[in-house]
């Protein structure tokens, strides 16, 4: 990782920062085959793919009974940490539950009501690391929303990660299936002999999972398509380089294709951050993954000519995680609209949101924050508008409705109103 001046970045370098690619295009054809085969062959295909891709001979695909046992068997401190994180996540998401409402609009009684989805599927990643935190982040908002049946698919392992299983118990998952990758998304979307089909599939995953979500979208709803994790730290001369570097290294730990960026208008700070990143990266366990992420084209420490230029970069970058470590962080935040989750101040590390502060860590990447937010209770409810008009209200609207209906050539629409006043 090195310091680069933002103003000197050429078109290719800027493209690397602003056109981050989830990589799903390169696997889309293979994923389509997997999805269709699971759709046709069900459990047989799941077991074969588990053997080929995960190296695991799967016996019971439904492992729901294992979650409570795992909860009872894990260390007390881990159990307490899961419970604390779950309570904070639940408390935050309970504030998001929408309330039905109706108001009077001059005789027009109009309103909205909200109802939860019936069946939701959650993907909980495995692979190079287990993510019990992602279980909490996906299952709890669904249960808070009132979803009756939340099913979770997580990659098979021998043995399965007991902390993930315990988190599933705490979060309240109704069914747990030992299946990973694109085959899991297909199973949740279309159902198999063991896996019940759902209305919506949510949760993070690698490019195979993301490509599968793109493939099934339309047959079921999904949350959004997300790629490798990313962080942007906007810092001024008051920032502590150790803290900035720690957030960069922590995010680099996720994925060699992750994007980790810091931007500042202070040259001394920029070089200090690089020095700290190099020192801290060598001290972490996942050094190989970290170094790969730090060296890819979408990572770096950027030197801006001013904080205004840094803000413009941040808005265009639209970070999954935006950390602002500056003396007037609120003023900077007011100028940035596009970010998945924002972390203000030196004592708000991104890891707080990853695990336990209460906000959701399933967030848009690849500039998705320009279009939508992260996972929330909103993803698990549907809204219906409700209306009741009295005779006077319809009388007032009659000329507007009939005029517009006839302008559209829909005479029957106009007559459906007139009919109510004809003797």
Report what the structure shows:
This protein has 423 residues and is α/β, with parallel strands linked by helices. Helices cover 45% and strands 17% of the residues. The protein contains 17 helices and 14 strands. The strands form three sheets. A six-stranded parallel β-sheet has the order 1-11-10-9-12-13, with helices on both faces. Strand 12, helix 14 and strand 13 form a beta-alpha-beta unit. The longest helix is centred in the N-terminal third of the chain and has 19 residues. The termini are far apart. The model has no long low-confidence stretch (mean pLDDT 94).
Topology readout:
Elements: E1 3-5, H1 11-18, H2 28-41, H3 43-54, H4 66-73, H5 76-94, E2 101-105, E3 108-116, E4 119-123, H6 132-145, E5 149-154, H7 162-171, E6 175-178, H8 181-190, E7 200-202, H9 207-216, E8 221-222, E9 230-235, H10 241-252, E10 259-264, H11 267-281, H12 287-295, E11 300-303, H13 307-317, E12 321-325, H14 329-334, E13 341-344, H15 350-355, E14 381-389, H16 391-407, H17 411-418
Parallel strand pairs: 1-11, 4-5, 4-7, 5-6, 7-8, 9-10, 9-12, 10-11, 12-13
Antiparallel strand pairs: 2-3, 3-14
Helix pairs in contact: 2-3, 2-8, 2-9, 4-7, 5-6, 5-7, 6-7, 8-9, 10-11, 10-12, 16-17
């Amino acid at each position: 990782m090195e310091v680069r001046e933002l103003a000197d970045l050429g078109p290719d370098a800027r493209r690397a920062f602003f056109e981050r690619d989830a990589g799903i295009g390169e696997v889309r054809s293979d994923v389509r085959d997997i999805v269709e085969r699971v759709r046709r062959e069900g459990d047989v295909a799941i077991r074969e793919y588990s053997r080929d891709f995960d190296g695991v001979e799967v016996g019971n695909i439904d492992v729901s009974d294992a979650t409570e046992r795992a909860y009872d068997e894990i260390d007390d401190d881990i159990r307490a940490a899961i419970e604390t994180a779950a309570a904070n996540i639940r408390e935050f998401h309970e504030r998001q539950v929408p309330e039905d409402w109706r108001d009077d609009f001059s005789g027009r009684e109009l309103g909205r009501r909200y109802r939860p989805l019936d069946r939701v599927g959650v993907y909980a990643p495995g692979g190079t690391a287990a993510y019990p935190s992602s279980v909490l982040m996906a299952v709890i908002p669904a249960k808070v929303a009132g979803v009756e049946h939340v099913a979770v698919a997580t990659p098979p392992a021998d043995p399965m990660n007991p902390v993930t299983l315990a988190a599933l118990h705490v979060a309240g998952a109704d069914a747990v299936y030992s299946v990973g990758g694109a085959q899991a998304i297909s199973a949740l979307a279309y159902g198999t002999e063991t896996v019940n089909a759902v209305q919506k599939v949510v949760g993070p995953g690698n490019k195979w999972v993301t490509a599968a979500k793109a493939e099934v979208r339309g047959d079921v709803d999904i949350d959004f398509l997300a790629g490798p994790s990313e962080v942007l730290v906007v810092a001024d001369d008051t920032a502590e380089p150790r803290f900035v570097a720690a957030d960069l290294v922590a995010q680099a730990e996720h994925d060699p294709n992750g994007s980790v960026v810091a931007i500042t208008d202070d040259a001394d700070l920029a070089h200090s951050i690089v020095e700290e990143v190099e020192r801290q990266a060598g001290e972490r366990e996942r050094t190989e993954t970290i170094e790969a992420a730090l060296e890819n084209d979408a990572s770096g420490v950027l030197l801006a000519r001013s904080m205004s230029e840094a803000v413009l970069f941040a808005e265009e970058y639209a970070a999954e995680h935006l950390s602002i470590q500056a003396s007037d962080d609120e003023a900077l935040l007011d100028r940035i609209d596009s970010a998945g989750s924002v972390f203000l101040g030196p004592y708000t590390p991104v890891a707080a949101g990853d695990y336990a502060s209460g906000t959701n860590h399933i967030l848009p990447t690849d500039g998705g924050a320009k279009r939508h937010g992260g996972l929330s209770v909103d993803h698990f409810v549907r809204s219906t508008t409700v209306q009741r008009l009295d005779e006077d209200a319809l009388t007032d609207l009659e000329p507007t409705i009939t005029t517009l209906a006839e302008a559209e050539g829909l005479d029957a629409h106009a007559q459906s109103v007139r009919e109510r006043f004809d003797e």
